[in-house]
Every structure is written in structure tokens, then in C-alpha cells.
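Z., the sequence and structure:
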Amino acid sequence: MRRGGVPKSAAIPDKSLFKVRVPIQVRFRDTDAMGHINNAVYLSYLELARVRYFAAVADFKDHRDISFILARVEIDYRSPALLTDDLAVYIRTQSLGGAKFISEYLVLEEKTQRVVVTAETVQVCYDYERSAVTRLSPDLRAKIEALEGRKF
């Protein structure tokens, strides 16, 4: 293990695997007393990338078109980022199941290509009217596979 708890052997995903790139405008309020981007802010960056990804996949117009909930988040902090850094979040679908799918993220400092964060989220398809987990629709699966250029 190296400092921070991320195993040295933890692989950095290849940027070319990611189909959606979301530039991030770092704001002063995103930073902590040490001048770094606060760890909790990365959740918002991932959320923004997820929304943009699904807008690209399924032409979602607003939150009512989203039929899944966030079930799990794992973030590995690889290096600190500062207010003046140019960041981008890269997102892709890592896997699709019957009712859940996993998104993978890579946050880079764009000028140097320094890895700032790697992350993974698990989303579960959800029927808000019934308050119950539901299956991933064949239509959404097909749209994700089309964007990703592969079958799951």
C-alpha cells in the first residue's frame, strides 16, 4: 500500500476506453483550508459526469427521466488537485447486470494528464411509482451498448 490506502498495484484505467469526457470548472468553494479540492466535492463531479453520460446515452431531459438510484460509491484519491487545475471527468459503463450497472470514472488534470481520482459507482434500476428495484430496460441496455461500442 502507498500513502492514502490505494494499493500500488491498483490499475489506472486507459483513458481511451472512456466514451464521455466532462470538463470541470473548479470553483473556489470546492477547495478546503489547505487549498486542495475537498474530498466530498468529487461526489458532485462524478454526479455531473453521470448526468452528462446519460444525457448522451438516452437523451434524458431532466431528473424525471432517470430511473435508477445510486447504491454505492468508491473513490480512490490518487493525487491532490488545486483551484487552478484544469480537470476533466471521464466516464464509461464498466458492466451491466439485470437490475444494476457499474460506472467507472477517471479524473485527470488535463494539462499534465495526472490522475487525480479513480472511482466506481453502482446504480440500481428503480421504479419510483412502485418503490421497487426493477430490471434494466432492453432499450436502455441497447443505448448504453451503442455508446460504449460493445455488448455486455
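The chain has one domain: 15-143. The chain is about 20% helix and 35% strand.

Let me know what you think.
H.
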